[in-house]
């Protein structure tokens, strides 16, 4: 890992719950001041509605932020635990076939590239697809990966970029793969509230309908969260900013 100076990061965004907690654990015990972590809702719809007020409530007026969390693989070469830096983000509405690409780099220096360089060979630079619903079947993952030439999928990236780019805020997206492209995961969509919260009871019902997939999903999620904690610690170890 390289220890060169990196631009000042004003905030880290992470989905509330396990991802937020993993990022906070990664920062725990740091010997130098680290950026505040802001918990955000799951999904671009809730993101668009809540993000500006969340930043305001935290008293933040950021210039640079990093979105950190988990993602799903759409290509077979990406494995659980792989760290990815999203070079572009493509949003495809559920009812539509046309996407829109947003390149997220600052006007003067590519923040994503700087952070990726700090992590070295561990990080893969990828194209990300954002969907409003979780992509749960392996067949759909492969189809989306082929159709849109995307490497990974998330539910927040495009919404974050859409809002923060309008506010002239530079964004980098660093994620960890938590489910691969070869296996189904339980259907999570019924468990996601309109406010972007994952509800435990509907989630358990989904797990019971597909217990083998649930066991695999839990194990891979734990591996992903452990890697997310580690990469957070690695990225901000001895954090020295420009």
UniProtKB/TrEMBL annotation:
GO terms for biological process: L-methionine salvage from S-adenosylmethionine; nucleoside metabolic process. It holds the Pfam family PNP_UDP_1. Gene3D superfamilies: Nucleoside phosphorylase domain. GO terms for cellular component: cytosol. It comes from the Bacteria. Residues 42-184 form the Nucleoside phosphorylase domain. GO terms for molecular function: adenosylhomocysteine nucleosidase activity; methylthioadenosine nucleosidase activity. InterPro entries: Nucleoside_phosphorylase_d, Nucleoside_phosphorylase_sf. SUPFAM superfamilies: Purine and uridine phosphorylases (SSF53167). This is Phosphorylase.
């Amino acid at each position: 890992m390289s220890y060169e100076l990196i631009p000042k990061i004003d905030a880290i965004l992470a989905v509330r719950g396990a991802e937020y907690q993993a990022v906070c654990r990664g920062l725990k015990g740091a010997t130098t001041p680290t950026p505040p972590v802001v918990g955000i809702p799951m999904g671009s719809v809730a993101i668009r509605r809540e993000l500006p007020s969340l930043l305001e409530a935290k008293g933040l007026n950021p210039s640079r932020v990093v979105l950190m969390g988990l993602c799903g693989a759409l290509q077979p070469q990406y494995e659980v635990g792989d760290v990815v830096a999203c070079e572009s983000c493509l949003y495809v509405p559920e009812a539509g076939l046309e996407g829109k690409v947003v390149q997220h780099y600052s006007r003067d220096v590519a923040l994503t590239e700087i952070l990726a360089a700090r992590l070295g060979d561990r990080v893969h630079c990828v194209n990300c697809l954002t969907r409003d619903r979780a992509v749960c079947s392996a067949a759909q993952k492969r189809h989306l990966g082929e159709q849109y030439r995307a490497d990974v999928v998330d539910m927040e990236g495009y919404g974050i970029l859409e809002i923060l780019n309008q506010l002239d805020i530079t964004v980098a997206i660093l994620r960890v793969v938590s489910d691969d492209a070869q296996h189904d995961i339980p259907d999570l969509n019924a468990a996601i509230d309109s406010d972007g919260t994952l509800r435990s009871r509907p989630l358990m019902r989904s797990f019971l309908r597909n217990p083998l997939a649930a066991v695999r999903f839990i194990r891979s999620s734990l591996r992903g969260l452990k890697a997310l904690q580690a990469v957070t610690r690695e990225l901000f170890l001895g954090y020295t900013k420009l």
